[in-house]
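Reopening this one. Same input as before:
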Amino acid sequence: MAHETNEVFEQFSNDIPGFIAVSLVDLDSGMTLAVKSTRADFDLAVASAYNSELVKQKLKIMKALNLKTTLEDMILTLGDQIHFIRVLSPTMFIYLAADRSLANIAIVRTVVNKHSHRVG
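Same output, byte for byte:
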């Protein structure tokens, strides 16, 4: 799994303009299972842990609304970044960040969705 994940993360880095970082995250613990970053100042461990809480809260909202569906992905746009979360299973997700001035949401989503089945 690790080798395949590293290859996929390298593909993300190559195919997404403005790629900053990506991690494979355990939803329950918030721990990173694999990471790739182009910026030393971007703390993936912290971002992954907090994003696991974000996913958990969304799942609670869906349950409270009695929605009979699954959570596929979440897109968060910041002033200068795009953050994309792709849920892989009930226990794992991919978290990716890209520079908003270089990337666009459609490319980020397309690239992650194209390769995410090879992770986890």
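So the earlier flakiness isn't reproducible anymore. For the record, The two ends are 7 Å apart (CA to CA).
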